[in-house]
Design brief:
The protein is of the alpha/beta class. Helix content is 33%, strand content 18%. The strands form two sheets. An eight-stranded mixed sheet has the order 9-8-10-1-11-12-2-13, sandwiched between helices.
Length: 409
């Protein structure tokens, strides 16, 4: 008798059907700024999302497990039905793939953040004042010139990403281990050394190599006015995930602005759509242009998360309203299922990712409406979808789009 995993079950049951749109407002979930107040989503004027909530079903999703604060990579993998506890992906891999870097299976990749440090070495700004991409390119060129030969026997690649982000890739023999990050995660603390937690000689050697490069890179940057230091996050190699096409039979496309989200899309086998602009309306223009070519569309909106991390409640609410304004254009394409959710919560009140479950809306002509009339955290807490693990979302979308056969006789 064959024992099915959830992905094997989907391989057995998938069939042709209607199109699916997964619209992710990064960091969508929020909190009231004052007792008894509204969240960002509840405060936003969202007549279209409210109508879709009334016609469909809503609920709350947990990206990793209850009470766990997720990073963006694991949270997106969960939305694509990959349990992040089973499939651990370093953010460096996602950033490298997001910019189209040809990452070898043995390469070690890290996401870099330019940062600002005070005279005592403590981090005063983890994002170097959100420097421009042009400034990032200049700094990357400076690092390349100073560090390209820093590790004899290894190739070192430093590539700009966007704003304060860059990618470091080390290529050569014997790279591995389980490596920690240098970012302390808060200001007022000095950067951390990279250490290996695997207990292997390979890991210890790799940590030493990375620390050697970091020391030279920081020395190179020390006189910069803002980006006078850097941190590395998500040091890892490509784990080689099964692709959505293989599991679900979906021709999948990603419409995203930020490279990291293009990276996680490529990692699971999506094509990345090139387009001009960075607003939700521009993304829906791109969606319409490629509508006939794909079955599944991942549309990623970043600024809801950025405003949450900045503590800007009003700007986050306005960005939600900008997404609401384009929803009729998505529905006019006649999808079989539309899911609107976030990868995680980023309340402006906390200025960071949080463990709170994420508001989720499932709209479909085949949906069973619940009693909800609005799309917001409190309404989602009593919605028909309940509180569920985010890995269950894509199978739900497949069913509502008519893309799953009956199981059993």
């Amino acid at each position: 008798m064959m024992v099915f995993s959830e992905h094997n079950l989907m391989r057995e049951l998938h069939q042709p059907g209607d199109k699916i749109v997964l619209l992710v407002m990064d960091g969508l979930g929020g909190l009231p700024m004052t007792p008894g107040g509204l969240t960002e989503l509840e405060a936003a004027n969202t007549p279209n999302l409210d109508r879709m909530a009334a016609e469909g079903s809503i609920g709350l999703s947990a990206p990793v497990r209850a009470g766990i604060e997720p990073g963006s990579g694991p949270a997106h993998l969960s939305l694509f039905s990959y349990d992040p506890l089973q499939y651990e992906i370093g953010r460096g891999v996602l950033e490298a793939m997001g910019i189209g870097f040809e990452l070898g299976k043995a390469d070690l990749a890290a996401r870099g953040n330019f940062a600002t440090a005070g005279p005592d070495g403590a981090i005063t700004d983890r994002r170097a004042g959100r420097i421009s991409t042009d400034e990032c390119v200049r700094l990357v060129q400076k690092l390349r010139a100073a560090t390209s030969d820093a590790l004899p026997g290894y190739q070192v690649f430093v590539e700009p990403v966007q704003d304060y982000r860059f990618v470091l890739v080390i290529r050569g023999p014997g790279l591995g281990g389980e490596l920690t990050e240098t970012d302390p995660g808060v200001t007022g603390q000095p950067p951390l050394p990279v250490t290996d937690t695997s207990g292997t000689a390979e890991g210890e050697q790799t940590a030493a190599l990375v620390n050697r490069w970091v020391a030279l890179a920081r020395e190179t940057l020390k006189d910069e006015p803002k980006a006078n230091t850097l941190n590395l996050r998500g040091l890892a190699k490509d784990p080689g995930l099964p692709h959505l096409t293989d599991i679900y039979g979906l021709r999948a496309a990603a419409i995203a602005v930020y490279p990291m989200y293009k990276g996680v899309a490529r990692l699971v086998g999506m094509d990345v759509v090139d387009f001009t602009g960075d607003r939700p309306a521009h993304q829906i223009d791109a969606l319409a242009q490629v509508w006939e070519r794909y079955d599944f569309f991942f549309v990623h909106v970043k600024k809801t998360d950025s405003y949450g991390e900045d503590g800007n409640f009003d700007a986050k609410a306005h960005e939600i309203e900008a997404v609401d304004a384009v929803m009729p254009r998505i529905l006019a394409l006649n999808p079989g299922c539309v899911i609107v959710t976030g990868d995680h919560s980023t309340p402006a009140r906390l200025r960071s990712h949080s463990w709170h479950p994420v508001p989720t809306l499932l709209w479909s002509p085949r949906a069973m409406p619940d009693t909800s009339e609005r799309f917001g955290e409190r309404a989602c807490a009593t919605g028909g979808l309940g509180i569920f693990h985010a890995t269950n979302l894509l199978p739900q979308a497949m069913a509502h789009a008519g893309r799953l056969k009956r199981f059993g006789a």
